[in-house]
Amino acid sequence: MKKRVIILMVLILGIMVVDCNKSETNGQSEGIGQEYKDAVSKEKSNVIDGEYDKAIDYFKLALESKENDTEAKNLIEQLNLLVEAKDSEEHGAYFFQIVKIDKINVIDTKMDGVKKKANDYKDVVL
Question: What does the DSSP 8-state code read for residue 89?
Answer without folding.
Answer: G
